[in-house]
Amino acid sequence: xxxxxxxxxxxxxxxxxxxxxxxxxxxxxxPYIKDRMKHGVGKLxxxxxxxxxxxxxxxxxxxxxxxxxYFLMLRTSSPEKLQACALNYTIDNGAYIKEEETRKIDAYxxxxxxxxxxxxxxxxxxRYSSPSNEWPGLSSDSGRGDSITTSRKIVDEKxxxxxxxxxxxxxxxxxxxxxxxxxxxxxxxxxxxxFEGSINDGDVMNLFNIAKQSKRCGYNRxxxxxxxxxxxxxxxxxxxVCPYGMQSTSSSGxxxxxxxxLGTLNSSSxxxxxxxxxxxxxxxxxxxxxxxxxxxxxxxxxxxxxHMNCIRLHRCVHSFIYLLSPVKSLNLFRCKNLTVVVxxxxxxxxxxxxxxxxxxxxxGKLSVYKSxxxxxYLLTNSSPLLCYGNENLLFAPYNTWYSQMTNHLALAGxxxxxxxxxxxxxxxxxxxxxxYSCMDPHEFSLFVIPxxxxxxxxxxxxxxxxxxxxxxxxxxxxxxxxxxxxxxNFNYWRGLSHDFTKEEDRKVIFEHASERFKTWLAxxxxxxxxxxxxxxxxxxxx
Length: 542
Fold this sequence. Notes:
By secondary structure, this protein is of the alpha/beta class. The chain has 19 helices and 23 strands.
């Protein structure tokens, strides 16, 4: 049995959990939910959850709704249901207003999700009472704060397993309503939100089916319950690191060659020597795909390699990466000076410890943690999550299009009708709100994907079928007007230059404009991008 690699990596929100979401309070929630809900034991809707947040937990409604919707995004498996959740927003005078959600969620799985937030808990009291009397969160032997440790732990699957081994007993007490020594089938199914496994290296199965076949987990077939103490002992014995996760993929996955196409690339560079794309085994879905140490390259990928898989970009620098397929999740970790264009991300687009990156993408949720000087051109059906340690974040609406984009959005459960790119959610105190701003409409421009796809499976992305009207029709009004004003000015000056009767005059104007344009390309950093495109070879077949 192992933690589901993509679930736990996304469910671990990089925030210390609210004090009222501690195990002490979670133990009291499930019995209350079971008593109050009329439409089934263990079911919870947003109305009841809001009541619990305000009257029982004393946490803000915004924070409570954030946890509910975040869990709903991870739990919902159907693209149609994801789109239905997004379409609960209505537009009133240009503003998005959330309608009352009627969808019900599994309360057992939700309690497991809330408990897992303890993984990122920062114990200030323990540090404060330490003999060295250090500042809370600072370690004398490493000199690193807990916030850095948290960032390291999030990508360490071994530490997640150790966390569950140590705390599985406490989690089971919460799911057993604390008053019973037995777990119901629904409780174990809810726990299956976090866990899965296999028997004798066979096919991957859900936790409940594995537990039923074990003689050591305390399963009573007549009562259809599990004995808590035996189930806890069994879980600690069988828990292991996921053999298909990011960590296993990095060490033993299938390697794919990285195309080197940029003439300015220094072949002796340490980073270029480490460049690799690694894929997990084919018999597990979703697969893990890791792009590591990509340096000074332009890479474009689509098709089966990416389709609805979990993608990670790790320590990629000075590169341009196009991922033009619907994917399950996308994680950027310690990347720098990077441009990423992604088709559609079903769940989480996560950015951690990154600097000076530009992302153009559609996603279910954006999460940014400890990053600076980042620009996001977004289409997202939920508010971006801004955690601690962010600086100089810039947000703008999604600004590109390609022929298969509509299909990819549908596969990822996203809709063009709702875009909350400019409504970030910051659960930190007001004095610690990360620095972010919205792009000035006059600085906004459209982005053209510079590739041609000849494979009929994925359509064509040519200059001919790229239309600015495809983007303009769902841009916010002020950005649409600013772009149309730019286009009008361009057409005016182009027409003016053609009015010169003498060819020598037109030649002088062209040379002057060309020189100014080259200077602008170099100053803005676009010269490297254009040079890389001339040498980039597009690999459509993985």
